[in-house]
Amino acid sequence: MKDRKFDVIIIAGQSNAEGNGMRKPEDGEIINSKVIHMIDKNPYFYAKNEEGVEMLNLTLPVETVIEVAHERKAGDMVAADFSETFADCYIRAGMLEEGRDILIVKTAIGGAGFARKQWGVGNPVSDRFFAMVDEALSLNKDNRIVALLWHQGEHDAFENDGISKRERYDFYRENFYNQMKAARDRYSDFNFPIIAGQFVKTWQWGLGKDNAERIEAIYSATEDALNALGYSGYVNSDGLTSNDTDIKNGDDIHFSAKSVRELGKRYFKVYEELVRGDK
After folding, report:
1. Which is nearest to 21 in space by CA: 277, 184, 251?
2. Which residues have a Cβ under 8 Å from the Cβ of 277 and sit 6 or more positions away?
3. What domains does the chain contain, in order, with CATH numbers?
4. CA distance to 50, 245, 279, per residue, from 145 (Å)
5. How confident is the model at residue 208 (pLDDT cuts 50, 70, 90)?
6. Residue 191 has what DSSP assignment?
7. Cα dist. 114→106, 119, 122, 125, 186 in Å?
8. How far apart are CA 180 and CA 58, in angstroms?
């Protein structure tokens, strides 16, 4: 891969960024030899500690696989994510210069957040994120980061029972801002937008008053942090459906395969508005 020049797209966050839009293998996907991805070949898992709390177990240092981008297998189904759609839109919009390819760095981990010190500067998932992006840039001196796409917050909406809406807002805004600021500072040679997005609106537990307030705290904190960072955008998820809505599998937290691809288009629309406006 050292002979190829890449526009690097970073995908970060938790399970909806990792991709959990369930589809049948025969339904097909976008495959393009110019779109490569980097994934961590080491599996992660959650296990309960002595206090009965499920903790994330990672294998570090990271060991990467670099190959033509594709969606991951999930039993007898395939789990779609929004990165391939975003990359396809990027190419169709004429943003990929001749002689360059796309490298999607997939750093998201299902269930990971700030509350249990997984994401967050100095924490394991953050360290893994930086290690993967560093490796992507090291492949060729002409590689450049063009976008950081984030989808996360469900974890921090349901963790920390008993705190107020304001406390949840303050906690998430500080940690998310610091994580993104650290990425901007570390990779200051590149002027890249940061884009985040809302959750699945059909997420049933989000309909209750207390839970709706938790989600609203995360939404507000995310949007305010993005505004403070500048050159950033926020994606609305209105009208997008869950796996349960589309295939009746009981999963109402993850975008369906159809919706996750629409989400990729929405991320790109925000991206294009930011980039075109920057020129």
Report:
1. 251
2. none
3. 5-278 (3.40.50.1110)
4. 41, 35, 17
5. low
6. -
7. 18, 5, 11, 10, 20
8. 21
pLDDT confidence band for 241 (50 / 70 / 90): very high
With tokens 């984030």, the residue in question is 150
Residues written for the chain: 279
Q: Is residue 279's pLDDT more than 60?
A: no
56 strand-pairing partners: 46
Burial 113-129 (b: 16+ CB within 10 A, else e): bbbbebbbeebbbbebb
In degrees and rounded to multiples of 5, residue 35 shows phi and psi of -110, 110
Across 31-66, b (16+ Cβ under 10 Å) vs e yields eeeebbbbbbeeebeeeeeeeeeeebebeeebebeb
pLDDT of residue 206: 62
Average pLDDT of the chain? 93
Q: How many C-beta atoms lie closer than 10 Å to residue 166's C-beta?
A: 9
Structure tokens, 93:
């919009």
> Within 14-96, where are the H helices?
15-18, 83-92
| Nearest Cα residue to 129 out of 193, 60, 201 | 60
Interval 135-156: pLDDT, tens: 999 999 999 999 999 999 999 9
pTM of the model: 0.95
Cβ neighbors of 238 (< 8 A, separation 6 or more) are 201
